[in-house]
Predict the structure.
Amino acid sequence: MKMSELILAIGDDNVEFQNLDQCATDLRYTAKSGTHITFGTQRPITPNGTDKLGLVIWLDREAVKAAIAKATGQ
């Protein structure tokens, strides 16, 4: 299933996003182990994990910037 199909199936009202650039508390890179990102979230923890399922989705920065500019008329 494509991500766009999943979002369409569950509905926009059931989707939130959290920008790692804005919530990262530690960013580290080593040639041996790659990039490690630590981040915080306001999502509460339940016995089954956080109350909502979190996914990491990587998007092209310039494509996102262009899409936001187009949507906001900038």
